[in-house]
Design brief:
Elements lengths: L11 E5 L3 H12 L5 E5 L3 H10 L4 E2 L3 H5 L4 E4 L6 H8 L8 E4 L5 H7 L8 E2 L2 E3 L20 E4 L7 H13 L3 E4 L2 H28 L5 H7 L2 H9 L4 H10 L1 H24 L2 H20 L14
Parallel strand pairs: 1-2, 1-4, 2-3, 4-5, 5-6, 8-9
Antiparallel strand pairs: 7-8
Bound molecules: nicotinamide-adenine-dinucleotide (NAD) and prephenic acid.
Catalytic activity: prephenate + NAD(+) = 3-(4-hydroxyphenyl)pyruvate + CO2 + NADH
EC number: 1.3.1.12
Pathway: Amino-acid biosynthesis; L-tyrosine biosynthesis; (4-hydroxyphenyl)pyruvate from prephenate (NAD(+) route): step 1/1
Length: 308
């Protein structure tokens, strides 16, 4: 006997911005038979054309207003810097009872910019899937992106709990685990685990590029795993990351301040030959990596094809 497929959490879904995250959501919805219709819109004609070809939307519209007509769930999946303007343009076309979510990497500024446009009777529930790659655009998406990844849900005041619970169920059907968080804490956590690590990768790759005594050929030829990981991260979309830093100024500047203090302390330890300090520091940080592995939180641990 085949089990009945559970009813879709939302019948009609509208995706605004057709890139890695929207594409992955659409593919994951299709994998699970989760929506009766997925409509999409992106500002660039090239992205709309590519989405038509890839086929992850049932309908690709030529305006955001058209895409959100009659939608039960509207997903803002553009760079965070334009979400306020997108919300303003779709607001008059949202039906009562609809749920609007964003998937932006920053929450406090997005809430400040989007919430004022949301009409009464429509629920805005900010989200942030902690999953991605360095690739962008409609062809970057894939169905398993959210499998076993966290999606942070950042409900604003007065959102009925039943609506938040319905959305959590939706993310769990996309494969993700969910946790609720307040916006300030979200922005600080993401500055630590995502935003500043990206800035460091961008900087290190920039330094390698600037160093005239080391040729580009040598950088490419002798890149070992650590630096290769930096180059992967530093290949991420410039528009997305510009917007992340401009909209999460406070938390990223706080963490960057602490980072540079630690860096200067290590710089001094190297200069003065303080091996004890260096060893103690590296021992402390190794323990963090080990606890991530023990908690089973790194599903990307490479084995480099090791054999014995
Ligand atoms: N890439 C990641 O790793 C990742 C992970 C989690 C969350 N996010 C967040 O998700 C959002 C989307 O990221 P992505 O990686 O899918 O980006 P992407 O670059 O792959 O796609 C963005 C899409 O938005 C469209 N767009 C840009 N401006 C627009 C506008 N004014 N109106 C309509 N469409 C517009 C682009 O044409 C493109 O189709 C961002 O806010 C990002 O912070 C990204
Ligand atoms: O895996 C990657 O390439 C990512 O950069 C994904 C990543 C991250 O920093 O972990 C990037 C931005 C997001 O907002 C969430 C996830």
């Amino acid at each position: 006997m085949t089990e009945a497929t559970p009813a879709p959490a939302y019948r009609k879904i509208a995706l605004i911005g057709l890139g890695l995250i929207a594409g992955s959501m659409a593919w994951a919805c299709r994998r699970d038979g989760m929506a009766t219709e997925i409509r999409g819109y992106a500002r660039s004609e090239k992205s709309r054309e590519m989405t038509r070809r890839l086929g992850f939307c049932d309908v690709v519209c030529d305006s955001a207003e058209e895409a959100v007509q009659d939608a039960d769930l509207i997903v803002l999946a553009t760079p965070v810097g334009v979400m306020g303007a997108v919300a303003a343009s779709i607001a008059p076309h949202l039906k009562p009872g609809a749920v609007v979510i964003d998937v932006g990497s920053v929450k406090r500024t997005v809430i400040e910019e989007v919430q004022p446009h949301i009409p009464e009777g429509v629920h805005f529930i900010p989200c942030h899937p902690m999953a991605g790659t360095e690739h962008s655009g409609p062809d970057a998406g894939f169905a398993s992106l959210f499998d076993n990844r966290w999606c942070l849900i950042v409900p604003v005041d007065h959102t009925p709990d039943a609506e938040v619970a319905r959305l959590e169920q939706f993310w769990s059907r996309l494969g993700a685990m969910t946790e609720r968080m307040d916006p300030e804490h979200h922005d600080l956590v993401c500055a630590v685990v995502s935003h500043i690590p990206h800035l460091i990768a961008y900087t290190m790759v920039g330094v390698a590029d600037d160093l005239s005594r080391v040729s580009d050929q040598e950088v490419i030829k002798f890149s070992a795993a650590g630096f290769r990981d930096f180059t992967r991260i530093a290949a991420s979309d410039p528009t997305m990351w510009r917007d992340v830093f401009l909209t999460n100024k406070e938390a990223t500047l706080e963490i960057l301040g602490r980072f540079t203090e630690e860096l200067f302390a290590l710089q001094r330890a190297i200069r003065t030959g303080d091996g004890e300090q260096l060893h103690a520091y590296f021992t402390r940080t190794r323990a963090i990596r080990r606890s991530i592995l023990e908690a089973g939180q790194d599903t990307n641990e490479p084995d480099f094809g090791r054999t014995r």
